[in-house]
Amino acid sequence: MADFSKFDSSVITDFTPYVTDIPNFPIPGVTFKDIQPLLADPKAFRQAIFEMFVKFETNMNYWVGIDSRGFIFASALSQYSNKGLKLIRKKDKLPPPVESKTYDLEYGNDTVQMQPGKGKVIIVDDVYATGGTMDAAEELCKQAGYEVLGKLVFIDLAFLHGPTNVRSVIKYDS
Ligand code: AMP
Question: Which end of the chain is more exposed for a tag (fewer CB within 10 A), N or C?
Fold first, then answer.
């Protein structure tokens, strides 16, 4: 088995080369942050997970992954830390019982769901943009019975939102 304690966290100091900007995707005016270069590089991906892990020195029970790219990071964090994984999914994907939370999008709204439970959680996603998805996830976790210790993403698009307590590996100010 790999010994992650021997991992050298000083190798990559700037993760931005592992993210590709895709202008005008999925709609005009949005620059999509594509994390696939990071995922394709096992060493960089492993260090990214380590960098996310050390953002919280708190003893949670579960990482909560947000559908769908949040699952990638949350499942890796689960294995790295030997803690459990819980899923927040889009509507009608989880079997009952489920708690639901509907939140506003730029146009219309969306609903996320989670099964009820107990324990301390950290919520994980790939990107924090306006924060609407993460806010909904936090409310849903509380509604479902969990105690939210923190919110964690790989990329924070800080120029798109006001003050927040989300923690990130990469922060874009413009
Ligand atoms: P928001 O609710 O505005 O914070 O958006 C966060 C969610 O939308 C995350 O689940 C991201 O996967 C996705 N997302 C928003 N903006 C981007 C972006 N520029 N690039 C990649 N994913 C994004």
Answer: N
Question: Which of the listed residues 133, 154, 172 should we mutate to test ligand 1's pocket, taking the one with most ligand atoms within 8 A of CB?
Answer: 133
Please give the chain's pLDDT, 174 residues, in tens: 455 555 565 589 999 999 999 999 999 999 999 999 999 999 999 999 999 999 998 899 999 999 999 999 999 999 999 999 999 999 999 999 999 999 998 788 999 999 999 999 999 999 999 999 999 999 999 999 999 999 999 999 999 999 999 999 999 999
Nearest CA to ligand 1 atom 14: 127
Cα(2) to centroid of ligand 1, in Å?
Answer: 32
